[in-house]
Amino acid sequence: MLDASAPLASSISDLLRLRTPNHTLPAPLYTGQAAFDADMQAIFHGEWICVGVSGDAPEEGDVYVVDVGRTSVAIVRDDDMGLRAFHNVCRHRGARLLPAGRSTVGKLVCPYHQWTYELTGELIDAPHMGSAFDRATHNLKPVHLRAIEGLLFICLADAAPADIEEIAAILGPRLAPYGLADAKVAHETELVELGNWKLTMENNRECYHCAGNHPELSATFVSADFGYDPQALSAEDLAAAEAHNARFCATTEAWEAEGWPSRMVDRTRGFATMLRTQRLIMGSGGESQTPDGKIACTKLMGSMDRLDLGDTHAWMSNMWSHFMADHGLLFLVFPLSPDRTLVRTKWLVNRDAREGLDYQLDRLTAVWIATNAQDAHLVALAHQGALDAGYVPGPYSTFTETTLDDYITWYVERMQAHGW
What residues does the Rieske domain cover (predicted)? Predict the structure, then answer.
């Protein structure tokens, strides 16, 4: 990892400080190895990041291993059904305990020299270390873990930002009806985008590009919700947008009055742990993100008992998500190198839903399999442009990309807070 006091840090600090408000970042912050290493240290090792869901380790003895850069974290379901997180490193000579992904174990046993740990992290057997060896000082190193209604967050720093409890207070009531803590992962994909992770996040933070690139996704929402230039619309289109805005405001107030938290909460600039969340009206069939807008799964999520509650969005540092009556979607971003980013997508359904009976997998996944592929192409184009000698930071639209500017401002603030 880079040291923020090293000479190289000054160039990154200068680039961060010189970033023009409401513009993209200087190219080296997207393309350089030094910036990538700094990002991993400050954002992915210093802040809360989302890494999965409770359904990734649903039963006693289940382990879900997630790699964050060169660091591997094991999320373990112990014998009391509690979730814990540990560095996936044996305390003997540092061997990896388990490979990335899911497994089920009785104990955590190092494959190198068979040091053995309880699911709670205690070292219980260290062969041939002698009677004077103190096992209690060689337990697995814990990692900060916070479960919020089934979403799993970790922080690799020694001291994690305390405002995760504020996030829980906001997200908890919004997510509770979806029963995410008991949901199962119906399908999961991994896609490596050929671009910097910040370009992946920027691409997601705006829908300026949606109409021309995402026909499947665009049918499931109302474009007016993502901003527009009123002077660029015809009188007819402007009237339709204004009518939708009035309907949206009235619907939001009705949802709130009925006990469904829906108003936008935006805590991005000035916050350590960022969150933007809102419930939006859905387009097309009005029920779900499927080819026809109707539900894909007949067994609804959690305690949901109606189909007219739209799409609850949540955006955070390395994730975005959609939760609807019939299924949920979680997108997780993990940087691999300056020009490669892993996007892991999880489709969530009711634990008791049966594939082929309650849902058809191709229908459940169709919209976002298409959308993810389209986004990967766009991110690659953006990264190619950032490498070009002709690249200069460009302006964001003040009508359709304000959330993108908020996100990049948050990124700059957090990097500077960590000494860059």
Answer: 48-154
DSSP state of 138: G
Per DSSP, the three-state class of 386 is: helix
Please check whether residue 10 lies inside any domain of the structure.
no
DSSP strand E in 221-318: where?
Answer: 265-267, 275-280, 311-316
Sheet holding 275-280, edge to edge: 184-193, 340-349, 328-337, 319-323, 311-316, 275-280, 265-267
Q: How many CB atoms lie within 10 A of CB 251?
A: 18
> Residue 313's domain is classified under what CATH number?
3.90.380.10
Give yes or no for a contact between 384 and 31, defined as CB atoms under 8 angstroms apart.
Answer: no
pLDDT in tens, 340-359: 999 999 999 999 999 999 99
Residue 10 pLDDT > 90: no
The CA-based angle 248-251-256, given to 5 degrees, is 125
> pTM (2 decimals)?
0.95
CB 312 within 8 A of CB 174: yes
Tokens representing 266? 């935006």
Q: Number of structural domains, the chain?
A: 2
Angle between helices 7-17 and 402-417 (to 10 degrees): 150
**Residues pairing with 327 in the sheet:** none
Please give the radius of gyration of the chain, using alpha carbons only, rounded to the nearest integer: 22
For residues 371 and 296, state if they share a domain. Answer: yes
Residue 331 sits in the same domain as residue 239 = yes
Range of the domain at 349: 166-418
Q: How many of the other CB atoms lie within 10 Å of CB of 235?
A: 7
Q: Are 324 and 282 in contact (CB under 8 A)?
A: yes
